[in-house]
Specification:
alpha+beta, 175 residues, Aminopeptidase
């Protein structure tokens, strides 16, 4: 399976990603998207990286690094989570770290590569995403691929003193 596109490629986590993941996991601006509530230590992230070799069938998740080919620079992460081979479904999440790397097509290409991988290699029937109702860029991104809105989880996430709805989108493999 080729996880290489025109401008990005997706690769497995490496021990050298410790600082990159540490920065992402401890970036409070991203906590709302990742549902993080406390900082992570380098020790915990190092342990996570040591176990990142687990197969998706064993770990029920897969995290890949999004690398911009031109600069050969890690720019984000794309995750599969809650992998359920029996029911042939998986959740998908993505984060592009820096504002200057957003709205460049990197996220679109990364999602396209992962959708192909999920449908063709993992033989998944459906992919779902959970998106905060005010996250217009993510709604636009996943709608581009035919993800359909299927429901709202009312007041699902508490961000500071505000409760936000979370939208559920789903993409069915009709092949």
């Amino acid at each position: 399976m080729n996880l290489v596109g025109e401008s990005v490629y997706l690769r497995a986590l490496e021990p050298e990603d410790l600082d990159f993941i540490y920065e992402i996991e401890n970036n409070q601006a991203l906590w709302e998207v990742s549902h993080t509530q406390t900082p992570y230590s380098r020790f915990l992230i190092r342990q996570y990286l040591e176990n990142a070799h687990q197969d998706i069938y064993e770990a029920k998740q897969l995290r890949l690094v999004i690398v911009a080919k031109k600069e050969n620079k890690a720019i984000g992460l794309i995750d599969l989570f809650d992998f359920d081979p029996k029911n042939e479904r998986v959740g998908l999440g993505i984060v592009i770290v820096e504002n200057q790397d957003r709205n460049t097509g990197y996220g679109t290409e990364a999602v396209a590569l992962l959708i192909s991988y999920v449908f063709e290699f993992l033989n998944v029937y459906q992919i779902y995403v959970n998106i905060s109702s005010d996250n217009e860029p993510s709604i636009k991104l996943f709608s581009k691929f035919g993800f359909e809105y299927i429901g709202t989880k009312k007041a699902w996430n508490k961000v500071g003193m505000i409760r936000k709805d979370e939208l559920l989108f789903q993409l069915i493999n009709n092949k």
